[in-house]
Amino acid sequence: MHAHPPHAESGRITTRPRTTQPPTPHAAVGVGVIVIREEGLLLGRHRLGTLELPGGTVEPYDGSFEATVVRELAEETGLSARTDDVTLLGTLVDHVGDVVRITVGAVVRSCQGQPSTQPDESVGGWEWWPLDRLPRQDLFECSAQILAHWRPDLPIDHPPAHFTPYAAG
């Protein structure tokens, strides 16, 4: 038999506050956004040369992954969408060096505008790629992993990563 502290008898559950010291950073959280239209799949060229989906880092003020998708889509491409137009696919977990990279894949079902290179963004030169004519090289690994989980029938080779799909809903 275990002894319980006096407050446990009240039926209330207590908590321990967080420390004032932040943990050592070792993770990066972001989104990768699939935008598909009649013209094809939207991919942009990173200044380092890779082709990739729109996306970026989750910020504490976003409030949700859907809000991050909408914000990043606007910041990187100039396209506008509503959070109601976002479907979250799942979480991709891999790592680069000592950093765990967590990326939430998403599909935007509807958006307005035409994509264009935005000032101060590292990805631009947005183009629509028909799914049967995707680029054969230079696809960013994380984008490839998200696309392969979205559409397993696409002929995309990519390094292994753990992907947890979200329940349809």
Features of this protein?
alpha+beta, 2 helices, 169 residues
Poorly predicted regions are none
Biggest sheet overview: 8 strands, mixed
Mean pLDDT across all amino acids? 90
Q: What is the H-and-E element order?
A: EEEEHEEEHE
Radius of gyration: 20 Å
Helix percent band: 10-25%
Termini separation comes to: 44 Å
Name the overall outline: globular
What's the total number of strands? 8
Structural class call reads alpha+beta
Q: How many individual helices? A: 2
Strand fraction band?
Answer: 25-35%
Describe this structure in words.
This protein is α+β, with helices and mostly antiparallel strands. It has two helices and eight strands, in the order ββββαβββαβ. The protein has helices at residues 65-77, 141-150; strands spanning 27-37, 40-46, 51-52, 55-57, 86-96, 99-108, 123-129, 162-165. Strands 1, 2, 3, 4, 5, 6, 7 and 8 form an eight-stranded mixed sheet that branches. The protein is globular, with a radius of gyration of 20 Å.
